[in-house]
Fold each of these.
Amino acid sequence: MAQDPDAEPTPETAAGSDASGSEGGFEADADSVGLADAADPAGFDDPADPADPWLTPGVAGIGAASFFSDAGHEITTAILPTFLTATLHAGPGALGLIEGLSDALTGVAKLIGGPLADDPPRRARLASGGYVVTAVATAAIGAATAVWQVGVLRAVAWAARGIRSPARDALLASLAPRKAYGRAFGLERAGDNLGAVAGPLLASLLVTLVGIRHTLYLAFVPGLFAAAAITIAARQARDVAASPEARRSFRINLTALREAGAGRALIPIAAFELGNVATTLLILRATGLLHHGSRSLTSATALAILLYAAHNVAATGVALAGGHWIDKAGPRIVFATGAAVYVAGYLVFAFAGHAWPIPAAAFVLAGAGIGLAETAESALFARMLPDHLRGSGFGLLGLTQSAGAFASTAVVGLLWAAFSPTLGFGYAAAWMLLSMASLAFWRGPRSQV
């Protein structure tokens, strides 16, 4: 029986398309992703309508929350090594253990927080509560008198960050128009990266004025602003909700996520994250390159940290520009560009010379790469998933990012120690190239690239 080519797809026809093997395997069940998304459920190539009003108080509130929260905990992050070693007389091993366990907890907490955030009323409380707990636990480190206390408080703060992240992203997706997800998530990523610039600068100023412990206490202030901003966003999310929804049970619906395309989407993302090393390794590499000739180790370290600030400035600007680009061209081309820029940055780190403009260029390239790629990842999942799966989807994305970053940093560090930094950064660049290659096989029915 012939069908009208202009007719709206039904759940049966959408499912039938999937069963017959649509191009690139992108067709998903219409009940899972919504009729508007059935033609391009992964949302790789869906251009925006520039007339969409997107910068609402709620969207701006989430961007402000990311800025203030990141500024607050970056104050503590900048001071933590000195606090542990000089004040509590611990060694670098304690710092590594605390940071490693905290980062691991963040990934697990994101996976747990994902299905909790599938429930709209609950996600608002998770987001607000997560920002409050992060602020309180981070500032409380200033009162610690033992290393184990720092470890517990840091773990609590980072677990709260993990729990709140899927709720925040699901809130943002519910507040912004679908056609403006790139701009909305670009604003959130820009706020986060700008906070990573402001936090260390504030820390360096406050330490000279009030000392280490009082600076840690004052980290609570931007955290409090973050909690207030996310509360405003959560209130608007409740106001714009179309109808009250029943409370959903706590479970990760992996089948529905797979049918919506999340499994395929995670392939290039996982490859990218397996090459996304921690910025501490970039700082270490830059310090080694800059510690040359008459430049002392102290001067090299200070210059490397300054170049790291340039990395965050680049990530801020590129995330904003990349968000607009996503809404015009789709997340795929932006994600691929981010990976390509990262490859260029890694190659400079692998073979760089000792003049400061060379590692500076590498830092800027890495910042631009992460600004593009992270924004594209978030916008992709927001487009691809319906509201009742977004929390779980963002939780799964967060776990992939955390696990990949942990694995990449560990392997690159081992290759660096056993052989050379060139081999380590070459390994990371290879994963980025593999991520780009995997995108070449992903073409939805309405591909425009």
Amino acid sequence: MTPTDPLVQTPSVKTPEAFTDAKAAVDRLCELYETATRFLCQEFASALTDGPKGPRIRAFYPEIRITTHSFAQVDSRLSFGHVAEPGVYATTVTRPDLFRNYLTQQIGLLIENHNVAVEIGASDTPMPVHFAVANDTSLTIPQEGAANFTLRDVFDVPDLSTTNDDIVNGVGFAYADGAKPLAPFTAQRVDYSLARLAHYTATDPEHFQNHVLFTNYQFYVAEFEAYAREMLADPKSGYVSFVSTGNVEITDPKAELPPVEKQPQMPTYHLTRADGSGITLVNIGVGPSNAKTATDHIAVLRPHAWLMVGHCAGLRNSQSLGDFVLAHAYLREDHVLDDDLPVWVPVPALAEVQIALETAVANVTKLSDYDLKRIMRTGTVATIDNRNWELREHEGPVQRLSQSRAVALDMESATIAANGFRFRVPYGTLLCVSDKPLHGELKLPGMASDFYKTQVARHLMIGIRTMEYLRDMPLEQLHSRKLRSFDETAFL
């Protein structure tokens, strides 16, 4: 329940209500969220024009809550859609309009598996004015000192105590009243990432699809656009639009895309389907820090899979430029996730994703079985945080690479896989050998140009085919128990 305080002005909201219909529950979430954001936006606009009226202005995130008194007898093969034991579980919610399908599905599973109603009402978590204002393009938050009042004296601002990864990191998160988490992220954590995504990718979160391809080269973008136009020209493809930087959206395969004056840090493109099951391509650039940043924020959208389809250094003399590497293990020397996921935690290969990747390679290359081994190695991928590792003395690094049995080295794959493991997002890696620094084949301009021309299209198509295979897989099979710990949230 929302606390009452005469010194705090809040919107009038309905009392919590029990629902046994998931769609009706989500409708109430949307109503509560709209009431809260509209109130904050109106009061903020008024405060900017006329100054604050006196009392503190506050609105609250909506909340989903469930209470169960028995151990549910659910299909033991299912990794989500149920809580582990009797108790009270809750989650705050933001942007229910954006997450409508996800929320309807997850709430429906709770009701079905536990045969109890879910309670929808206002939470005790204040909504920061920054995130409410993000829904109104006519308003912006002024810099500290630019307004005629101190912002945090009147409105709530982001609070790090509810904007963190404590739930997914498994550190024993509980809400203030003792309720256990229903979902992997709090509303503030989601709002923070939605804002960051728009900043880094220059596309709105609404455009992101459930299947995400990461690459570390812009060369893949032209091929992705060409494929998108081909799909838009085919009415049977199921794809309905292509979204480019700056939220430019086309549905006509011959439509022009205006040139981008200023590229964002992580250019992102979306080949969309009406139900969100299309494909998003993100050029994260080079380095584990970028890889972590992208996956930290995309994770709140709860994608069904993400894959790395980038370039790597081949570490074996038997490899050739253009060969593929299917990662089945990772040597983590990227260090950016050490505090969140210690290096002693194994990051396993996921059979469902591995099979889809190998099937896609065979489909695109027209090779199979033993012949496939000519162009693809399965093995350990090492990810390092030093792009110029070749310039250091080689005795130590090369010895570690050899001891690990690594077959390839890059700067992003292990980070993406590790964050997939941490966030319970199915992950995989298929890299393409672009140089062999240990064997005298450095990535030089002329050689690289020829390589890119011949390999990018095929590599990208393998990633697309893989996502299409995974899209046809039942969710309960793709989101398997391998990514779930002892005490998991009910929501994916």
Amino acid sequence: MLTYTVRRLVLSVPTLLFIALVIFLLLELAPGDPMAQVPLTVPPEVKQQMREALGLGEPTHIRFGKWLYQFFVVEPSVWMDNTFGTALSEGKQRVISWQTRSPVMDIVVQRMPQTLWVVAMSYVVGILIALPIGIYSAYRQYSVFDQVGTFITMVGYSVPPFFSGVLVIVIFSVQLGWLPSIYDTTHQVVDWDSFIIQIKQMVMPVMVLALQTTAQISRFMRASMLDNLGQDYVRTARAKGLGESVVVLVHVLRNSMIPVVTVIALGVPQIFGGAIITEQIFKVNGLGQLLITAIQANDLPMVQTVTFMLAVLIVLFNIIADLLYGLLDPRIRYD
């Protein structure tokens, strides 16, 4: 498995480089000009100087090469300098946002906690709810629990976040007054009372996002369990006298988790991308809102960096999902 992991990591390098090139070229071909928001009173020669200061006067391949060097060499050097007190990045140009004139990675690090508080928590909650629902719905197929669960999950999968988000705000914030409608990104958790405030402002966005996660994963879990419950090895295990809980929770569940692992693993990069619509509704100042703002401002370095980071996560968790297959199914070998 170690050899397989190393081989996959090596093969992922040209894949990521190709993805980076595609993202860069797509942003180059996209309509819009970073100088479009500059006031009309600014003279053309000043605009030209501003374009050159942003590096827009250089050829495309030069700018792409500079971005690769900054992202893969300079930014890791900055991290090592901050961690170990070295000076590897001294005097080197980092990836700079055109909109804020600040290093892109510094802004990403600032926004990451808000995204993890809300989106990551909702994903974990959704998985913890979805797996038991899917397992029991399959075991008690066509029961009242299965029919109610199917109806709720289909509604959760069909209703868009911009509708469910506004609905919970109207019910729990406007009508009942239990929860705040706007997420306070400046709030800091320093004691128990501030932790309770943080939990209250997380409830509604987590509820909206967890509903979709639960709906998707529980359907996959139910379908996979039903497929395995009818297999010959299940009848054999029951004929040998194994307890029903052992048959379902050990033998059937382990084989059923193989396709579900793919769904869960591929959904993890969405955490770091943020829930764009939900963050807009609840004013969560996370990575999703950052990406939307950067697109609206034609901030190409920010869009390029954040989008490529999501691509890296997708490739990485694809590898993790493949490795988990071998742990769940002994028949899978990576020789």
